[in-house]
Amino acid sequence: MPARRKERLWIRLQGAALGEVEAVRRQLPPPLRARAMNIPVSFEKAPGRALVNDGVEEDLLGLYVGESYSDEAAGVENVPSQILLFLHNIWDYANNDMGVYREEVRVTYLHELGHYLGLDEEDMIVRDLD
User: Fold this and answer.
1) Model's pTM, two decimal places?
2) Are 5 and 12 spatial neighbours (Cβ–Cβ below 8 Å)?
3) Of 4, 82, 93, 112, which sees the most CB atoms within 10 A?
4) How many domains does the chain have?
5) Per-residue model confidence (pLDDT) at position 119
6) Distance (Å, whole) CA 28 – CA 23
């Protein structure tokens, strides 16, 4: 794919992802919305080499790093809380279908937000966020 076309796709993916994250945040109940607004969301193409070297899978869709909400007051970690969404991986997972992509951004964001709120993988499955 030519560089210019790749750049247009990246801009399109970022815009769609930002729109989905903002829509999800608006739909959250006020107490959760306030918490969600405090967690930065970063859009990356895919996990970088440092993350892969730390054991993160190259095709991962999203990642929450930092302390869970309940651990923040205790100061357990020194890593700033943030959600990483890997947009090229989500696009590939969605088979280049924008509707599927938007839905997967939504589900992945909610999944990672759930980790911030202290949910584990079993909790995510129960909530259909796996």
Assistant:
1) 0.86
2) no
3) 112
4) 1
5) 73
6) 9
13, 88 contact by CB (below 8 A): yes
Q: What is the CATH number of the domain that holds 122?
A: 3.30.2010.20
pLDDT digits (tens, 9 = 90+) for 72-95: 555 555 667 899 999 999 999 999
E strands, the chain, in order: 41-44, 62-65, 82-86
Cα separation, 126 vs 38, whole angstroms: 25
Residue 96: which domain range?
A: 3-126
Strands 41-44 and 62-65: unpaired
Residues in the chain: 130
Q: How many CA atoms lie within 13 A of 66 on its CB side?
A: 20
Inter-residue contact 112 to 83 (CB < 8 Å): yes
